[in-house]
Amino acid sequence: MSTFQRCVLMVLMLFLVFLNAKPCLAQEIPVELVWKYKDAGWIGIQIDEGNYQLTEFKEQITETPCAEGSSLECGWGGLAPIIRLNDNPFQIWRGTQIELRALDSSGVFKIQTPDGESVRYRGSLRLSWKGDHWSLINQIDLEQYLKGVVPIEMSNLWAQDGLEALKAQAVAARTYVVKKLQINSQITDSPDFDQAYLGKEVEGKASTAIIATEGKILVDDQTKLPIDALYSSHNGGYTEKAENVWSNPDTHFSSHPDPYSKGMGGATDQWRFIIGADVLGKTFQLSSIQEVQLDKYPSGRVKKVRMTDQNGKSKEISGRTFVQAFYPFGHPIHSQAFLGSLFEVQEIPGQAQLKGQENKLGQWKNLIEPSVISENVPINSGPRLDRIFSSSLGIRENPSSEGVFIFWGRGWGHGVGMSQWGAYHMAQLGYGYQEILDFYYDNVVLVDK
């Protein structure tokens, strides 16, 4: 082969490599910031790092450079929205949208609320007035977004002995976003609707897991389409089918024992909730409850709850609805909270039920610690079940003759897909992130998106 022919062959090979190479283009995604800023009437924004350009979309589009240290206040003057850039006077806002666009990848801005709470975010920000509040959209690179998700969905501390769990979480979170954005134009930062996201504020050692799995997602092994990569904090030792939670079958989830979740997660592993029979009845528009019956799935999760009150009236509701009635929305998770639908129930009869056998009630008087009932109850007084409203409502001023119900539960969340605590335990035992994903998801393959 001549020198000329070798050169031609080399050029041809390089050309073929170029044709088959995957482009390394950053993908920006829109994240609606509702977790901390829902119905925000006033917010303050400050450029912490990098250079930005402020664009106001009004009758005439205006562009203003914003260097590090620049600030923007967006408020409500009672009748109309108002804004102020730096130390300029407030002006009435009559436009359609404001965009704070990062001019390079180093851009970081901080959002502050009137109560002094602040969160830092990477990327850009779009603002629009919705009649009585500001709407905020964080436009950010997908991989940078994940750096604000994985540490709060799991923990930066897990990087020390559970890095493979963080990698599995990164893949699941990335897959979730890719799938969701195929259906919707944007996602939210709220754990109630999508995935928890707190921007640069929570970035840390978990970023290593995101970098190590960059671009990797889970797809169906037949269609090669992204799956709905669901996960929850703790499955109570048993995974659940998707149709048993949302009525929609999904072949990527099955119900099977999970030995890796058991004994992990503290309060999320085992919890109990106590409630007076009369309070339970009132919650569901019944009189004092006399009996609770549970209809369960094979996993042990409660499908239906049937309650019968002292007047013989019965009501049946779904296990999910029952949990939602007592779930500690907006409050810290603890071992006395109602955290999921995998539970048993125990009735402790009161004086009204014992009918002359009150001596039997004494065996239950000291079942729970005083601190569970109220921090204001003296230790030497001893807790009394007949004084309980519920674990969340505290104690009554006067004892009740009605009984109480104790719900003993395991796990936190729906239990479909990956158990985060189970994944952490698997990582501690030496499993790789692909093995973790294979344990929790069925009929999938790991690919580069």
Automatic annotation (TrEMBL):
- The signal peptide here is 1-26
Keyword set for this entry?
Answer: Signal
Keyword Signal present in the record's keywords: the answer is: yes
Sporulation stage II protein D amidase enhancer LytB N-terminal domain residues are 132-219
Return the InterPro entries for the record.
Answer: SpoIID/LytB (IPR013486), SpoIID/LytB_N (IPR013693)
**GO BP terms:** sporulation resulting in formation of a cellular spore
Which Pfam families does the record match to this protein? SpoIID
Name of the molecule in the record: Sporulation protein SpoIID
